[in-house]
Amino acid sequence: MDILLIYSTPNLGGAEIYALNYLSVLKDEVEFLVVGPENSFLTTEARAQGIATLEVPLSYPQCDITQVVQSAHLIERYMKQQNFQPTLVQVHHLPAAMVGSLLVRECDIPLLFNLDSAYIRETYRQFLRVVPNYVLGGSYTCQTYILDKALQTPERTFVMPGGIEVNRFPPVSDHTRSAARAALELNGRHTIIGFAARLVPDKGVIPTIEAFKLLLEDSEVSHRHDLRLLVAGSGPLQNELKQFAQANGLTNQLHILDNLSHDQMPDFYAALDVLVLPTRREGRPLVVQEALVSGVPVVATPVGDIPLMVTHGINGYIIPVAQNNHHHDPHLENIIDMVSPEQIAAGIKTILNEPQFRQNLIASNQDFRDEFDNVAQSQKLLAVYEQIKARTKQFV
Questions:
Q1: Exposed e or buried b for every residue in 12-25, given b needs 16+ CB within 10 A?
Q2: What is the CATH number of domain 166-372?
Q3: Domains of the chain: which residue ranges?
Q4: Which of 74, 105, 181, 192 could join 186 in a cystine, given CB atoms 3.0 to 4.6 angstroms apart?
Q5: Residue of 136, 158, 130, 116 whose CA lies nearest to 334
Q6: In whole angstroms, what is the distance from residue 375 CA to residue 391 CA?
Q7: pLDDT at position 326, please?
Q8: Where does 218-336 have alpha helices with state H?
Q9: What pLDDT score was predicted for residue 40?
Q10: CA distance 223 to 299
Q11: Burial classification of residue 261, based on how many CB atoms lie within 10 Å of its CB (0-12 exposed, 13-18 middle, 19 or more buried)
Q12: pTM of the full predicted structure?
């Protein structure tokens, strides 16, 4: 089976890790051609795994019709040169979907549209209503939303939640924690809070560091804990974080680590006492899965599939939130209001004061490992490919 996979985004993010995880599992059973923008993270990593790749002049989020047509032409020419005849075209984000829609008409094959979350803009809704295709939800809440809003029919809607390579994230022990902290030039007496996401407003990194400052000023917390905050990620808010740290005298307590590699992430979680993700919109975040299988409690907002993974008071803390009215865009009813630093600080404080959170994670660790296992999840995607292929044959 041959699959043409087109991604619009050049950067490293959860969607790209989601793709790499199933590519690494299925590459011996499926022949992929991975297409992305020039110098994209996904094509670079796929190429390193021996998967065929092609880079085209796509851009995201802005993309004009010239780019779409040119990209489709380059892909079609490459496929003819390589005699690559895909069974279907799988796309992520709207620019890739626009390119894919041109190719499936030319090749007379189906289009499978990846959507991460229930955060779906009106332009995406219009595309789903007009262009006949299949939809693959990367989270259960995404699948539910698509069906509730009748954006696609049930028989054309699938779900394949993102999984992780669970063996890369062993449950944290005293030995692994000491080694991880030493690698980060920290020590055993520190209480370490972690944040891992792209540094953009919707992920809540600014309220997180403001909450961290509140905890440092809380005499009850500071008396018991020598706090450190580790921020893993990059993005447009990176300079603002550094300026905040300098202006508030936090340069010794706040460590901005930039993007960490796959190999570095297990040590990142091993060093933590708690992971914080006060995000405003989400699908099924891989960082929550990775933290939980590593034995790290999570403080997060109840968006996307997070409440399906984090049980309040058991393995983490769900931050109470309010729904946003969104007068500027009434179609984004799934995004929440920005969470206050006080709410985040309260969640972190709860976790730090109660050791049973980590004990509960140790007791339920195997359940999480089975649920999040990437190999099992990727087989679901293979089954989706097979179903679409079988249905296509019926109408040939």
A1: bbbbbbbbbbbbbb
A2: 3.40.50.2000
A3: 2-163+374-394, 166-372
A4: 181
A5: 116
A6: 25
A7: 47
A8: 219-224, 238-247, 265-270, 286-293, 306-309
A9: 93
A10: 22
A11: exposed
A12: 0.90
Per-residue model confidence as pLDDT tens digits over 271-307? 999 999 999 999 999 999 999 999 999 999 999 999 9
Which positions of the chain have pLDDT values less than 70? 323-332, 393-396
| Cα distances (angstroms) measured from residue 352 to each of 121, 140, 164, 176, 197 | 38, 30, 26, 20, 22
Alpha carbon distance 104, 4 (integer Å): 10
SS3 188: coil
List CB contacts of 97: < 8 A, sequence separation 6 or more: 91, 111, 113, 127, 131, 133
Please indicate whether the domains covering 2-163+374-394 and 166-372 agree at the CATH topology level: yes
**Cross-strand bridge partners of residue 113:** 91, 135
* 143 touches 113 (CB < 8 A): no
Handedness of CA 338, 342, 343, 345 (dihedral sign): positive
Distance set, CA 267 to CA 188, 294, 298, 316, 321 (Å): 14, 10, 17, 20, 31
Q: What is the pLDDT of residue 327?
A: 43
Residues present in the chain in total: 396
CB within 8 A of 229, min separation 6: which ones? 192, 193, 194, 195, 208, 209, 212, 250, 253, 254, 255
The tokens describing 387, both together, are 């179903």
Round to whole Å and give the CA distance between 167 and 330: 42
Superfamily of domain 2-163+374-394, CATH level 4: Glycogen Phosphorylase B; (3.40.50.2000)
How many CA atoms within 13 Å lie on the side-chain side of 33?
21
Beta-bridge partners for 299: 276, 317
